[in-house]
Amino acid sequence: MKCIIVLIYSIVLKAFLHVLWSFTRVIHVPFFCFCLTAGLTVSSSIRILDKRQDCNQLGLKNCQIKNCPGERIAKPRQHAPNGPEVGPHHLGVWMDEHGPVSVVNVSWTIKSDEPEDEPESLRMNITIPDPVNSSLSAAKQQPEGFQVRERRRLLVIYSLDHPLYKNIVLKLSAFLATKCGTEVFLDLLDSTRLGVLGSVQWLDWHREQIESSKDKILILCSRGVKAKWKAMCGDKQVFLREDARSPMGDMLSPALSLMVPHFIRSASFEKYIVAYFDDVCSEDDVPSPFNITLRYKLMKQFEELFFRILNTEKHEPGKVNHIDGLSEEKYHQCASGRALRDAIEAFHAYQLEHPQWFEEELLESSKTSSEIYSLFRVHSSVSEALAENKPVIALESTIITHGMPYPHNLSTAKEVEDIVRSEGATPATVGVIDGVVHVGLSSEELDHLARCKSSMKVSRRDLPYVVSKGLSGGTTVSATMIAAHRAGIPVFVTGGIGGVHRDGENSLDISADLTELGRTPIAVVSAGVKSILDIGRTLEYLETQGVCVATYGASKNFPAFFSPQSGFTSPFHVFNPEEAAKLIASTLSLGLQSGILLAVPIPEEHAAAGQLIEEAVQAAVTEASVKGITGRDVTPFILQKVNELTEGKSLQANIALIHNNAKVGSQIACALSRQMSERKCRGNTNRHGKHSDSDIVVIGGINVDFIAKGKAETLIFGQTNPGSVCQSFGGVGRNIADSLSRLGRSPLFISATGADSHSEAVLHYCKHMNTSGVARLEEQSTATYCAVITASGELSLGLGDMDIHQQITAHYVSQFEKQLSSATLVCLDGNIPVSTIDYVCSIAKKHNINVWYEPTDSDKACKPFLSDAWKSLSYSSPNLAELRTMNKTLGFPTPEVLPSSVEEVLSVAVALSRPLLEHLHCLVVTLGESGVLVCGEHEAGSVNLQPRKQKKKRKLCAVHYPALTVTADETMNVSGAGDSLAGALMAGILQQRDTDSCVRMGLLAARLSLASPHPIAPTLTFDSVDPNKVKTQEWPKPSFMWID
Questions:
Q1: What are the two backbone dihedrals, phi and then psi, of residue 631, each rounded to the nearest 5 degrees?
Q2: Which of 23, 599, 732, 745 could connect to 740 by a Cys-Cys bridge, CB 3.0–4.6 Å?
Q3: DSSP SS3 for 895
Q4: Going by DSSP bridges, is the β-strand pair 153-157/183-185 parallel, antiparallel, or unpaired?
Q5: What is the pLDDT of residues 384-441, one digit of tens each?
Q6: Could you name the domain of life of the organism this protein comes from (predicted)?
Q7: Which residue from 101, 371, 409, 347 is spatially nearest to 236, judged by alpha carbons?
Q8: C-alpha closest to that of 134 among 167, 100, 168, 169
Q9: What is the spatial distance between Cα 203 and Cα 680, in angstroms, rounded to a whole number?
């Protein structure tokens, strides 16, 4: 019946709109489809927007026509579609700032057949195609200067904060669809598919579709988004009135659960766009995971956001893209833009009148849909401790649900948590409650698990089923390790781990605990392996899995749960918490992705008589076999039977060993926390001295270089030439960061590589550098470069696969904004996108940061000069051809042919440097075998290289330094000499050395590079380029010249 109702009214409404189209000339906007439930009847009325026929003024405020109304007006009802239960509605006409846009407002009165149900009214806005304009596509409405070649799709994630905010989201979607030609996926516009798939499946389907394409996900941050994110991290649950009204319920919480794990991967940064309406929201409404990226203010930065949607750069070589009508000043000049502006202004006015509007929208609920959709819940005490780098101990819960009878299980769990707290750590008991994995349980939740008689035993295998069915259960070692690792907890305490069952060589009954230890980097503190298992084969299997096993204490004897000795030994042992912590830290630092088993013997005073318990174990095993008990039911049966046979002594020993493990594990966690903090402080002091981590930031390319050097002076193309080929690691940005690292600095290097063997090799080679800013991207190839040089060392041919450098986007780099804004110097190479250069220059301008631009080659030298970004540069180190490109980009006259004689070269270099020095502090022009020309502010007979504190009128000069002699036989590599020069110059400048010393350091570093098979010589040290310590021929005297 309900389908028939929907069909009839859809046909009637479409027919009516077609008739109305012939009488009105208005623009088309898609309208919503309502899915009506059975037993409902519908009535409708229509309100039409129109304008005065004799008014052609733009906007009501500008209208000078006498008696032109400045407000919406209504006309008598006409042509409204008839239907059952028609209410006293009317067809109206209202003024819309004199724009040629009319909107049909349809009010549906929905009445249930049930007498006790109150009727509800829904209102929707519909507009009808204008026969004059309907043929114009969104693409054709774009200006000629920029054409949208491919329609993009956009999934919008938001919170139903308020009806007025929902209206803003709807109006933004309409603006994106009509003005921008973007296909918008919004839950409010897809209720039919949502009803079929369900919210989680609907979101996941769209996410997968977008992640496999070039399309984007837009996250609109607001008060509700921030509050629901905090709720997912353990704060008070949040449920809003609009969530309750919406047939879809809370869509944001499941969206965050699905999106955030993908968002925080560097490879996914490009897929997500974070924005907020700054008139009704603020920067404080952005959840912490999204602070690592750019946050767009709407509608101030909508044009930049739209270029992100299009996967297009605003700045391209030789031009700046612009789309008319998307700026903050112009977006509201179209109908959908005006509607969006009105919606924003309406909510802003409401907020001013109702300062507590968000609190008023909150519903009190102890069990909300957001709680249901969050698959992992971290208790607030745990998340706070982790955020402050305090020690946290993960605890399993099968001991509560299956290990001991009630109330011993509950009292033991609380006692264990108290022991952890007394040692200075935070307990994080892991369990599954109603399909949600909890990391950290409240007292009520502990009691619930302890009393629950239907709890499941949850291992890795069982997690998906238990979560999907909304069940509860105790987590085994493997499931607890998964949850702890996801939460970032490195130490986990349990009683004993599972292992290879007796007769396992035939049954292949092997606990998932062992395989989990082989693939999850968690330190598991236990009393060894349960004595009911085959301990020898268990240790063999752990060795096969690559798990480091160590006994805690003076002996290597491997404990057997109830007994301190099992007859087997561990490969290693650690004496105290500090040694155990060092072992854990080493394992984590190596990145082996496997765990550690720390076996802690039960205290002798609590150990039951070994022979008595062993006899009881054997008897229990036999009985289990006779009764046909197998699989997961074996352990609880045997433990219970052993407890009966030993008259409770085994239970007392069980509790004692768990208490002891908790104490030892907490001490280890505290020691690990101290060591990590000390290592971080010591590392900062050793590497940086008085400098911070962000002392220098280098952003640029990283390459694997193949250098082919011919034996002949002239290479013959088309045939094989004799020579030698070697592999090295380069990239301009990498070379400069390498040079600085070898000269005593520790720059943060930001770049991108593929997740391939080349990447592994180059990062291993760069282990002396801070490469924490290098993104490893799936389905991308690490940049490679092949240089063919002659016997004399001259470059004959170069080939490069550098596409991955375009992934060093402003969006990715923005996560390092804190380091950028506090850096002493930022170095950019020309490989990175124009938008990234513009972004860094904007940060530099805001925080008065010195930026050094290394152009890389003539084609890329223009990038900062396509906009005013170049005015934020302090230094640049171009060669003569690159310097010419910079001038040509700015429109200054340049020579067609570059000179060859030294005198003419210097003259042209000085002339081309002069215009750039209006804003740049200093130019270092590299002249190959002719040396270096340094141009800038005159000071004491030379050029002042030290960063200027303020811009002022200055006298300019240039100093020419001849190159050091390097013979053809000595030359092995020409790809890194310029980068070595630049890196050594930067190091000298940051040490506040005089200009002569800085340049000579650079020349010495360049000479080392030319004589090395590597772009940056491995022998490069500060002493090797210190002019006061290096014995060389007498330095040629530099020549000085004034710059007019």
A1: 65, -140
A2: 745
A3: coil
A4: parallel
A5: 777 667 899 999 998 888 877 888 889 889 999 999 999 999 999 999 998 889 999 9
A6: Eukaryota
A7: 371
A8: 100
A9: 40
